[in-house]
Automatic annotation (TrEMBL):
Belongs to the alliinase family. Keywords: Aminotransferase, Pyridoxal phosphate, Transferase. It comes from Quillaja saponaria (Soap bark tree). It holds the Pfam family Alliinase_C. This is Tryptophan aminotransferase-related protein. GO terms for biological process: amino acid metabolic process. GO terms for molecular function: carbon-sulfur lyase activity; transaminase activity. The keyword Repressor does not apply. Residues 1-8 have a biased composition (Low complexity). PANTHER family: BIFUNCTIONAL ASPARTATE AMINOTRANSFERASE AND GLUTAMATE/ASPARTATE-PREPHENATE AMINOTRANSFERASE-RELATED, TRYPTOPHAN AMINOTRANSFERASE-RELATED PROTEIN 1.
Length: 391
């Protein structure tokens, strides 16, 4: 994989449909193709027809703070959170973005001010999502700057923004702010706060909560994210940022996202639906199966170990369950210092711990690949017995 996170030549080769035993398996990115088979099974249920005469205007709903958001998407987002019970939307503002990547940057813009003498420090507890440092510093903004691991941040240095990612990417931990007692502002990145990844044990109710269709339903290509925002002025500034960077968000994508959310909600609101047809029941079962298989393989391994996750009651499913993250955070043991290189030796592409502000003994691997890739990954992992450093 290239340093900018985009697929390298090898990685592109792995996306061919037949898996050759000598080809690389690319689990470096969290591409959510695992859900493709479910949506294929849904056939035409989510098909959206868009006529040539539809959606010509820049303008959508000038009465809304987020004037480029389709009212049907806003309704669908509120309905989805009501069905799942994972976030409070009442009395809040919703801002749609081109993925939550755009909304993260919109939030940084909204929380900072040109009147500040110094750029605002942006921190996240390590291991943090590897894209945050680059997204913060890429344009060398005078408004904010990346200040690294929140655990070692000196809050007396002034105002700051802490990004709280829960469940966390890469390690799946459930998190709260780490910097205590400071004058910090918070951005909650809740990309993975959905029942297939973790028990839904509280209604999230924070100032800025970012969600994304990419990790919720797997439709990463539609590039739809949404922020639930408490403060009107912050929502206005986020909207202004999106106006300046892309004059809004594709309405075709918004329509598709709304349709997909409506179909999911309908399946939970209508008692006639079979369990296996309901998206979160299906996706949760797939994640449970994958995690069970991976844990069995790693238990036998002399080379790798995995995190343990706490159990709690999920109000959505009514069951006691464990977090089953979208990524495996694998740690190499027995004197192997570089997990990523070790995996590369097995022709498995992962993202090494250093990118997340962590030890190179760790590597992150996607649990969201297609079935054949996942099974081949397990096969390669289970074939390893003793490996010495550098092989
Ligand atoms: N936040 C986290 C924690 C993520 O893992 C991702 C995707 N990998 C994003 C934000 C961005 O998602 P998107 O732009 O596709 O909405």
């Amino acid at each position: 994989p290239s340093s900018n996170g985009l697929p390298s030549v090898n990685a592109t080769r792995t996306s061919t449909p037949t898996l050759h035993p000598h080809s690389f398996i690319n689990l470096e990115q969290g591409d959510p193709t695992v859900f493709e088979s479910y949506w294929k099974k849904m056939g035409d249920k989510c098909t959206v027809v868009i006529k040539g005469s539809d959606l010509l205007s820049y303008m959508t709903d000038l009465s809304n703070v987020c004037w480029f958001m389709l009212p049907e998407l806003r309704d669908a987002i509120e309905r989805l959170h009501r069905v799942v019970g994972n976030a409070v939307t009442d009395g809040k503002y919703i801002v749609v973005g081109t993925g939550s990547t755009q909304l993260f940057q919109a939030a940084l813009f909204a929380l900072s001010s040109p009147d500040n003498a110094q750029p605002l420090s942006v921190v996240a507890a390590a291991p943090y999502y590897s894209e945050y440092p680059e997204e913060v510093d890429y344009l060398r903004s005078g408004l904010y700057k990346w200040a690294g691991d929140a655990h070692v941040f000196d809050k007396d240095g002034g105002a700051y923004i802490e990004v709280v990612t829960s469940p966390n990417n890469p390690d799946g931990s459930l998190r709260e702010p780490v910097v205590k007692g400071g004058k910090g502002k918070l951005i909650h990145d809740l990309a993975y706060y959905w029942p297939h990844y973790t028990p839904i044990n509280h209604m999230a109710d924070y100032n800025i909560m970012n969600f994304t269709l990419s990790k919720c339903t797997g439709h990463a290509g539609s590039r739809i994210g949404w922020a639930i925002v408490k403060d009107k002025e912050v929502a206005k500034k986020m909207t202004r940022f999106i106006q300046m960077s892309s004059i809004g968000v594709s309405r075709e994508s918004q329509r598709r996202a709304a349709k997909i959310m409506e179909v999911i909600c309908e399946s939970y609101e209508n008692v006639m639906h079979m369990r296996s047809d309901k998206f979160f029941d299906h996706s949760k079962a797939v994640m449970t199966e994958r995690w069970d298989k991976l844990k069995k393989v790693v238990e036998q391994s002399e080379v790798f170990s995995l995190e343990n996750y706490p159990k709690s009651c999920c109000y959505f499913t009514g069951e006691i369950t464990e977090t089953q993250p979208a990524f495996a955070w694998l740690k190499s043991k027995n004197g192997i210092d570089d997990c990523e290189s070790c995996l590369r030796g097995l022709k498995i592409l992962s993202r090494g711990g250093i990118r997340f502000g962590a030890d190179p003994k760790y590597a992150r691997l996607s649990m969201l690949s297609r079935e054949d890739q996942f099974n081949e990954f397990l096969r390669r992992l289970s074939n390893v017995r003793g490996i010495s450093n550098g092989h």
